[in-house]
Amino acid sequence: MTLMTRKTAFLVSFFLIMITAVNIHAQTPRELPLDLWISGNLMADGEDWYSVRINQDGFLTVETSGDKDTNLEAYTAFEDLIGEDDDSGEDYNARLEIFAKAGQTYLFKMTFWDSDESGVYKIRAVLDPIAPDTEFNTERSRAVQILPADTVKVYIRNAGESRWYAVNNVQAGIRLAIFTTGNMDTMLTLYNAKGKLLEEDDDSGSDCNARIVFEAEAGSYFIEVRAWEEETGRTILHLETRDNKPDQYENDNDIANAKEIRTGEIQNRSFTNADDIDWVYFTVTQSGLYSISACAEDEYLDTYLELYDSRQDLLADDDDSGSNYDALIRIHLNPGTYYIKVSCLDEDPLDDNRYNLEVRRER
Length: 363
Prior knowledge:
mainly beta; Jelly Rolls; 5-stranded mixed sheet; single chain
């Protein structure tokens, strides 16, 4: 074989490989415009391909909508898989988030989880533009200052990267809740002004998000945000402060100091710490079915109820019969005086320690 023939054969093989690499899918990708829902109709055992052209750096979200269980996969223009998702959206829909660079085209494959399923769906792409990485807060010495009650978008652009934030002049006695929201599995670490590690958390929040709650001393604090293992992406960092003052019903920590609640009344109460107990009494004048509920204002607060008669004999108790971790007792009562003991099953109810206590006659 001559040199020219070998070169020709090599070039033909190279272009065949390239054509195969960019045409793994059996259809020409449909252009997916930004900020617009479009409809699709997928046959059984099928797949739909979409392309998104990006004109500026940003955080690209592609999501589906409908009553089908969908899957999304993201690829570069050269078919390198860079992300996939099944159920991060609502009602088993897929929601996929990736960093997108200006001038690049990204491909998305949409399928149904059950390959035998067919039907219609909707899909859209949304770009959250971000400037080139001008933030250098990848070290504690370069921490970005934020304020209590701030909400900050945090971008983890590189595997293993940290982002640092500083909260200055925090007042003593304030409960500071630090948590993330989003689809990224996050880690939070809290340090004092001298760099001493105070708290660290991975999954105490919802959906693999991190959450730290603590009662602050006067001073400044550093917060380190990072992703679990090699993840990259976007998360939202939240800071919330709450006052730790006792509620208006204290001191009610024993039955001798129980405060009255009337049938039909709702009292807004709080736990000052994990050992705080609230005692309450009420009077029944008419026999019937009564409900006693301790409904937390925060989904993480776990309340516990005990009901006693006038002789202090336990009649009923409950942990989670209400929604989330709320306690609920439903019981038939005759005329008399009854005592309610409300306690907290959280180790540290500082995130949100408020709950609503209600006594109601149902019939």
